[in-house]
């Protein structure tokens, strides 16, 4: 904590705090060149690493494109990726390290909402922009009392992913009206993301007329769900809604089907990964997820991004958050371009980048990129995917208006 305090209270963000000089000429003809670092924080190993790596390399492609196209003349961008292992404490340590690195001007990430809760204040105190391509917990941008009074906790926090308010309700609407399911058993992993998603699904499902047959919780890392499976079977539920990541749900759905409960498992974007299908095997057939936006492979603007990701043979899953990570990185890059004056970064460059990101509006590869007064994306599109013949296939896209 002593190190954290000293870093955050000094505020010594001079020119070198946000970039370093390179005396070599760049290809655009500008003899002076500033090198600026964009940080990335995500689980790059262990739990959730498939989606975490998709975030890292989505950002990497954005940086490479900016350098190749000289998006900001006189500025070269580089990426600094840090592994939070999906652990909040590690994420906080990474945030402190990124703030202390004088070349870092902004950060993309993290993947997990629970990790973000431990990083936000570190970045905000340092006036450093943080843009998550995947956080969906409403309280991150609208405060803990968001259901009754929305208050933005941190002006430096933004996201290109829409919130659980829409995702959980979108799932409930499709479950009730699309799948004609009337009785759901609801499970979550007790984490910020999973618990929040399940709560909102439950609220909207019951408002639509559905019934909750039972609720329960699991812990991250669990592998034996026999007791839970028995509860679900005995409840008579025709759907299992799961709030959490793929690491546990891919095992749960297999044990559920092996026990003879042939009902679909429906979850959020934390499950939307090929890893889920690969691990669960045939048991995943018919399972569903919601995810932000529309399928990246169907977006004309993302065609080059997808081709590059595949050509580079980057690890991880680009389909879940890769394009949103690319756009989050691009938002920071464009903001840097707006604050650079006469080939120089101002002494308060980090704070100016925060302000520039708030005002940003551009066409990204995932859609229109702009942020509202809470730092949330204005792009509210969502998609339901279902496992069909061993692959995630989109079955429904649209917007959702919560039922009051």
Automatic annotation (TrEMBL):
Q: Does the keyword Signal apply?
A: yes
From the Swiss-Prot or TrEMBL record, give the protein name.
Answer: Branched chain amino acid ABC transporter substrate-binding protein
Carries keyword Translocase? no
Per the UniProt record, the source organism is Streptomyces colonosanans
Q: In what residue span(s) does the Leucine-binding protein domain sit?
A: 35-390
Q: Read off the Pfam families from this record.
A: Peripla_BP_6
Q: Say which family it is in.
A: Belongs to the leucine-binding protein family.
Q: Which domain of life is it from?
A: Bacteria
Sorted alphabetically, the keyword list is: Signal
């Amino acid at each position: 904590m002593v190190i954290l305090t000293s870093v955050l209270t000094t505020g010594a963000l001079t020119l070198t705090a946000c970039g370093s000089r390179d005396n070599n000429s760049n290809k655009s003809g500008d003899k002076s060149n500033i090198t600026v670092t964009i940080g990335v924080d995500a689980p790059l190993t262990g739990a959730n690493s498939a989606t975490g790596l998709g975030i890292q390399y989505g950002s990497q492609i954005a940086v490479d494109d900016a350098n190749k196209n000289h998006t900001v003349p006189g500025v070269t961008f580089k990426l600094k990726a840090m592994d939070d292992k999906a652990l909040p404490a590690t994420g906080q340590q990474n945030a402190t390290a990124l703030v202390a690195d004088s070349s870092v001007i902004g950060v993309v990430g993290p993947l997990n909402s629970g990790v973000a809760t431990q990083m936000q204040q570190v970045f905000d105190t340092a006036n450093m922009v943080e843009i998550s391509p995947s956080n969906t917990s409403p309280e991150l941008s609208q405060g803990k009392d968001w259901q009754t009074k929305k208050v933005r906790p941190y002006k430096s926090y933004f996201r290109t992913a829409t919130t659980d308010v829409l995702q959980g309700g979108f799932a409930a609407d499709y479950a009730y009206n699309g799948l004609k399911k009337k009785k759901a058993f609801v499970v979550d992993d007790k984490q910020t993301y999973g618990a929040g998603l399940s709560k909102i699904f439950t609220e909207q499902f019951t408002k639509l007329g559905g019934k909750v047959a039972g609720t329960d919780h699991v812990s991250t890392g669990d592998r034996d769900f026999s007791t839970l499976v028995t509860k679900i079977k005995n409840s008579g539920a025709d759907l299992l809604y799961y709030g959490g990541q793929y690491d546990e749900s891919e095992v749960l759905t297999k044990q559920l089907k092996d026990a003879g409960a042939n009902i679909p498992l429906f979850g959020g974007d934390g499950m939307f990964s090929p890893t889920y299908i690969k691990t669960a095997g045939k048991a995943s057939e018919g399972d569903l997820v919601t995810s932000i936006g529309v399928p990246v492979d169907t977006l004309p603007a993302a065609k080059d991004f997808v081709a590059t990701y595949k050509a580079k043979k980057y690890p991880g899953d680009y389909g879940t958050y890769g394009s949103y990570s690319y756009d989050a990185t691009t938002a920071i890059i464009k903001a840097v371009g707006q604050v650079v004056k006469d080939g120089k970064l101002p002494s308060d460059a980090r704070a100016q980048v925060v302000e520039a990101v708030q005002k940003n509006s551009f066409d990204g590869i995932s859609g229109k990129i702009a942020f509202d007064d809470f730092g949330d994306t204005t792009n509210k599109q969502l998609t339901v995917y279902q496992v069909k013949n061993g692959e995630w296939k989109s079955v429904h896209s649209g917007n959702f208006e919560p039922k009051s």
